[in-house]
Structure formats: structure tokens, C-alpha cells
Description:
432 residues, alpha/beta, Rossmann fold, 19 helices, 56% helix, 10% strand, globular, binds adenosine-5'-triphosphate
Amino acid sequence: MWEHCLKRLEAEIAKNEILLWIRPLEISIDDEHVTLMASNDVVLEKVQSRYLKYILAAIKEVFGQQFSASIKLHQPVAHHPVVENKPQNNHQIPSNLDSRFVFDTFIEGRSNTIALAAALQTAQTPNPEFNPLLLYGSTGLGKTHLLHSIGNEILKNNPDEVVCYLHSEIYVNEMVKAIQQKSMELFKQKYRSVTTLLIDDIQFFARKERTQEEFFHTFNYLLEGQKRVIITCDRYPKEVNGLESRLKSRLGWGIVVPIDPPDYETRVAILKEKAKHLGFTLQDEVAFYIAKQLNSNIRELEGALSTLKANAFFTGKKIDLDYTKQILKELFKVNHQIVSVENIQKVTAQYYNVKLSELLGKSRKRSIVRPRQLAMFLAKDLTDKSYPEIGELFGGRDHTTVLHAYKKVAELLGENNDLNEDKQKIVNKLTE
Ligand SMILES: Nc1ncnc2c1ncn2[C@@H]1O[C@H](COP(=O)(O)OP(=O)(O)OP(=O)(O)O)[C@@H](O)[C@H]1O
């Protein structure tokens, strides 16, 4: 259920913010009240001021309108918090590691064998043969899982290491803040004092020249000091437009390893294993069915399982093939169809009776802006494209414009107006 809330929040809150601030919260449910527990004051304050209202709305939607929610500080208990945010040594650098993502829970298959071997080698050897390690592949294939696994493994073997996991977007934000607050020296020192730097989704650095420059120097500093640097990217780094060529070339100095979509057998294995973790056994025929329908993204496999589990929980039904087909029909409908951003633009323009060139153009007329924002929202929701990629496909707009459009549309959809109907009709057209 909580997973559903997190998924629902993606409509309003950027994924990396969810990962950083909300996913690590522990939750407990008592009667019809959900208590969220933060690991420290900073998290408590941030969630309370920025995210609680969205979390409450998601809880009401998923758990039921009668539910309420509050947040408090986590009372230390015998088990570890999910994200280890304890500053390490004297460096005041949080590791940001998620303890659920470890090598033990990573399922090996043909598509990720080399990536897994390289990650293990990096984590388990003091001076890894290949440094930096760069993992690339499209969304939901386990890159972040492997990054955290490397960090967790290193700290398990040597708790004195200073490991830091960071999403590139957070690095950019921190740097902007450091520039504003004239604290660049501190910023530089912070990331140069780690012994392992894990940077996720480096494609976010595209066109951010100042960040790239600073990162380039930090990166060189760490490599010269034989510190580990592990990076992920959503495509082969040379193909990222807007990354400086000297950085691209440095990224390739160690080893560059792809992660491909999992083959059928691996998808079945992942489904069965993940179901076990969710507390139920998946019948073979159900696993075969889902693995056949969803053939690219492991995050989708997880989504299918939690949807199934939540529905079975509420209805008391057994998860067999018929029930699975019934519940996942909607999910598969969208996945069967190859929904591309171009299709979304075309169908949205047709629906609102505006020209495609207007939809992609610069007009600020309300009659154009709203369809454009809805099309951007659908592009984010129905395809694997990132905000910057969608911006590119909408006439070279900045990713913040797409993010703004996404948030605006999500807000309007929550207000029960005509936009809901428009959205549904466009989705129907795309998936019919
Ligand atoms: N081989 C695997 N075994 C077990 N779980 C996996 C595997 N690959 C991916 N997952 C799970 O799938 C989900 C998505 O993976 P992850 O977040 O690592 O993807 P990603 O490649 O970093 O995607 P993105 O670029 O969108 O962040 C996670 O919950 C992760 O644990």
C-alpha cells in the first residue's frame, strides 16, 4: 500500500526527491492513522514543510478517505533505518544508502551478468582494476540498485570508508545553493573527502556547464587519489548531448558496462523472488503470464506484483491466472501499445483541435498552453522519457518547463475538472 502511495506521489514530486526524503521514512498504521517516522530532524522538517500534504492526499487515495497521517521522529530501535544518513567519520557526509538494495537481493540474468561482476569487483577490491565504473541502460533495469549495493558492501567490509551516494540532480541543486551562499569551497571539500562516490543518472549534468566543470575536477581529484567513482547513465555516455567531450572521455577511462532489459527467464525469476519478499508465492503460470506481458522494465514487474497483492488483500481473492488477467488488464493495455511522445503529441493536438506546430511552438495562448502541458504530463506518465528528453521533444524546452507542466496538470487533475475527462479520452485513443 505504501508502495502505491509512493508511486502516486510521482505525479507531484520528482522521483529523486521521493527516493531521498520520502521512501526512507518508516511507517506504522494504527487504526486509521498512518504515522511516518523520520530518521532525524532535517528529514522531519523537510517532509513536514514540503511533502506532508501530498503524502496525506496519496494516503487518503490509497488507504481510504478516512485516514489521517502525521510525522514524528523515529525512536531508535534494534533494527537499522532503511537509509543510513549518519554522518561518517568527521566529514559530516551522509552515505544516503538504502539498505534494501544489496547484492543479495539483486537477481542475476544474462542481461546484467557483466554489470553485476564489475560492481562486485569494484565493491570487494580495495584498488579495483577498473575505475571509474560506469553502468548504463534505460530506466528501471537495476542501475541504482547496483550503486547502493556497491556502497553497502564497501561499508559492510570497512565501516571507516566515506561512501556517498548522490543523484546527479541533487549534486546540481547543492552546487547552485553553494554558489548562492558563497560556500563553494565547502562544497568542493565535501565531495573531495569521500573515498567512494556513487553518482546516479549523470545525464542530468547535460548542459549544466558549471556543474560539469566542478564535477570534472572532483572526479579527477578522486581518481588521482585512487578513490572509487561509480556512475550511472541512462544511455551510452557518448550519446548524451550537452555533456562536455573531456568529461565524456574521462568517463570512459575505467570500464563502461551496459545493463540490458532482462530476458524472459530472468523476468520470471525476478517475479517469483519479489513475490516472496512481498509475502506470497506466485504460481508458475501467473509468473509466466506477467513475464510475457511486461518485457522491458523491472520497476514495472514490481508495480504489477504490488498491484496484484493490494487488490487480492482487499478482495480476499486468490492470485490465480484469471484474477491476474482481470487486475492487470489496464496495466497491460498501456504497455502493449507502443506509446511514443510523438503519438501523444499527435493525438493531443487532434483532440483539442490545434495544429501540431502550435502545440510544439512558443504560443502562450491558454488554448494552446493547457493541451501542451497535458501532452507533457502524458509523455512523462506513459513513456520512459526523462524530463530533459521530453523538453527536447517539445521544441527544445528546458526540463524545468516540463516539470512545471507535470506538477500543474497533476494539481488540476486532483481538482476534478474537465481535464480528467480530456486526459482519459486521450489515453483511450492512445491505447485503443
Ligand atoms: N536484477 C534485479 N534483481 C532484483 N531487483 C531488481 C533488479 N533490477 C532491478 N531491480 C529492482 O527494480 C527497481 C528499479 O531498479 P533501479 O531503480 O535500480 O533502476 P534504474 O536502472 O536505476 O532506473 P532509473 O534510471 O529509472 O533510476 C528497483 O526496485 C530494483 O530493486
